[in-house]
Amino acid sequence: MDFREKLHFEERPNDLFAVGELLVDMISDEYDDTFLSSGYTKYPGGSPSNIAINAQKLGIRSQIAACVGNDGFGEFLLERLRQEDVNTHFIQRAEESTSLVVVTKSRATPIPIFYRGADYRLAYTPQLEEALLHSKLVHFSCWPISRLPSRRTIERAIDAAAAHGVRIGFDPNYHRMIWQAGEDGVSYVKSILSKADIVKPSEDDAERLFGPDTPANQLEKFLELGAKLVILTLGKDGALVSNGKETREYATMASEVADTTGAGDAFWSGFYAASIKGYPLEEALRLGFAVSAYKLKYTGAVVDLPRLEDIKSQYRL
Amino acid sequence: MDFREKLHFEERPNDLFAVGELLVDMISDEYDDTFLSSGYTKYPGGSPSNIAINAQKLGIRSQIAACVGNDGFGEFLLERLRQEDVNTHFIQRAEESTSLVVVTKSRATPIPIFYRGADYRLAYTPQLEEALLHSKLVHFSCWPISRLPSRRTIERAIDAAAAHGVRIGFDPNYHRMIWQAGEDGVSYVKSILSKADIVKPSEDDAERLFGPDTPANQLEKFLELGAKLVILTLGKDGALVSNGKETREYATMASEVADTTGAGDAFWSGFYAASIKGYPLEEALRLGFAVSAYKLKYTGAVVDLPRLEDIKSQYRL
């Protein structure tokens, strides 16, 4: 993948197919290191749906496959997708409760409490396969690969995508707590890296997978494991991107930071939208960083993004 | 068990040992039939801890065995028990998240969403057995018997209690949703009834176990399955109590109803406290209904109960 060239996509009726977690985030209203605060607010969560919604706003077609419970939280998440005009045709329902993450905000590092339910019951259905093979690009994070049976669903999706020229984007957002005790999630995540066309670890992800090291060394480790294009994000220090032959540095474009939630998903959306719209890799990366910078100015995981072309002119790209 | 006689207890250093669920209730701030409301408030939950706290306030010694996660919700529940001066020595910690129930209040029937985690990991430990055999009475509900491994813990506790003269109180609060798909919870609950000294179903519990029928017929079904003393509560219509030979009717003592949450737990606490304090069955039942009536005047699952003797004189018993 040369920085001056366009990512090639097969001609397909859909652009982006995001597969994985769709869940509720329950976040404390106050900062509280004692866990004694009592008020919480619920938000729709799960990065695939954030990315699908963002991408649609930026001007590409997107679909999402996920699994929610037959419960009120499942209804809430479906209703939100409908409000955002996202197709809910590939949302499966399971007997288990809709997955939930509780975050009690903390001045120290907030430690989320995970309630995995329906999300990892995502099945590889003929409908899911059809949607996959009708898409240019499939995206997933560590959530669905962290548990069975959704891990098998992703493995089958990876095989089908590879066989049919669907591009694969993978967010190696490894967290020990979403894996089951006794499972070696780190090794599994490492084993998947070579199967993706694009991986975008954050510095924290890299440290959780490889231990502490310099950004340049971390980048090298992803490449050694077979990753083809590595976008290592460094927060306010921008990003390092390597295709294995050439490494480029990117400064952050963020001027104002109101809320960092969803900034990574905003990058993915902008990068995917730009790549699908035919911008060369170098420009698609800059457009991704611009969309992320735009999102950082506003509060919320998903903000009201303009079309990609508007962001392009706002950021003079 | 004659209505004029005292329940006999072995001499033991502790009075009541409540075993089972200790969890967080997350309840919506507003009534909402669409699940779109966003604000929730967290409360400590689980009837064994409500009963243990109440019983202590009424003037008997109580202990609780339960299992919570190594997380902020677990800390929150432990802190609350400490605030109520309940011994936390028998609270186990598990890798799983602290169990959580989300209730979105509804004008129709609210449908809770259950997130079972640590609660059913309760293990039968030497400490638990020692606490059990040092108690006059053990209490549990359907929560711990609905899943393994806590089901085995309760089965072992029942055997040890029976072998050592510890009285057994069982709340047959059967709900399909806390059992796993494919398991026959109804049959299991029925099979446990004969092992308890006291069972207290509500009319709804009876209907969930046996289908709709008259209160007198429902009472009969519990007795046929071997229950020794059945306290069938009928809401505003009071209660029917039978020892298999004689059935007595009790009118409600509630004058004001601010909140029905925890009314059943208040009955259990009052009935246990009175029985342990040596009141004959007839009086212990009336004192239980009086404690429940007292609780109904206030909002919250656990309210600031006075000593049992104060309630006795307030209700002229």
Automatic annotation (TrEMBL), chains A, B:
Ranges of residues in domain Carbohydrate kinase PfkB: 15-306
Annotated coiled-coil segments of the chain: none
Claim: ATP-binding is one of the keywords in the record: yes
InterPro entries, sorted: PfkB_Carbo_kinase, PfkB_dom, Ribo/fructo_kinase, Ribokinase-like
Key words, A-Z: ATP-binding, Kinase, Nucleotide-binding, Transferase
Domain of life: Bacteria
GO molecular function, one term: ATP binding
Pfam families reported in the protein's UniProt record: PfkB
Family: Belongs to the carbohydrate kinase PfkB family.
Entry protein name: Carbohydrate kinase
